[in-house]
Write a structure and sequence with these properties.
Distance between the termini: 17 Å
Helix content: 25-40%
Number of helices: 7
Number of strands: 8
Radius of gyration: 17 Å
Largest sheet: 5 strands, parallel
Shape: globular
Order of helices and strands: EEEHEEHHHEHEHEH
Strand content: 15-25%
Length: 211
């Protein structure tokens, strides 16, 4: 793996709970520039909760630091997204660029849709998309502001093999350009296809820390 020694994300002594149930205990790890980690573990081990805590959507105890202040692109689980909004695809993707001027925004939206192999869907209403198509649109929205760190929660859900292959190719290109990422993947074979390192929450919780 080619990555620098500079951490883009540093997690120290992290504790995560959901209700009264503790999910993660005393977890520590660094994510280096250019590094990708697959977050694995059994159902209920805290994979999605960890990602949500990192992007500021779930309370935690401990420290989550971004030493280089990277731009972050986040793709949540599809079950947390609603594609019944009365919006067209281009408008939905553009929600990630509220600060940009219109000409720049249109160009960025088209580029993100192209990367997600979804440019042909640009003018479609969200309600007419299949789940697989919507997953690609959600990925485009995570990419639209040119992040340096991608956080992807089960991104292959609802995708066919051809689209999964396109997604993995995009991840590898992003990594080759120095981009870092965390990705939740249940399938060991999928992780091996990407040839990325693994952070198993079951083992990390048992050992209390991951160097």
């Amino acid at each position: 793996m080619n990555h620098s020694d500079s951490p883009v994300l540093r997690v120290k002594h992290l504790h995560l709970s959901y209700g009264h149930r503790q999910l993660v205990k005393d977890l520590s790890f660094d994510l280096l520039q250019g590094q990708w980690l697959a977050i694995t573990g059994t159902n209920g081990s805290g994979k999605s909760t960890l990602l949500r805590a990192i992007v500021g959507l779930h309370p935690y105890a401990g420290e989550i630091q971004f030493p280089t202040l990277p731009v972050i692109g986040y793709l949540p689980q599809q079950s947390l997204l609603d594609f019944q909004f009365p919006l067209r695809v281009s408008e939905f993707v553009a929600l990630g660029l509220w600060h940009s001027k219109t000409p720049e925004k249109n160009k960025s939206v088209e580029e993100a849709l192209r990367k997600a192999n979804a440019l042909n869907l640009k003018d479609w209403p969200l309600q007419e998309l299949s789940r697989g198509q919507f997953q690609r649109i959600a990925l485009a929205r995570a990419l639209v502001h040119q992040p340096q760190l991608l956080i992807l929660d089960e991104p292959v859900t609802g995708l066919d093999e051809s689209t999964i292959s396109d997604l993995f190719q995009l991840i590898n290109q992003f990594r080759q350009q120095g981009g870092s990422g965390l990705i939740v993947l249940h399938d060991e074979a999928r992780r091996m296809q990407l040839e990325i390192e693994k952070l198993d929450l079951n083992q990390a919780t048992a050992t209390k820390a991951l160097a």
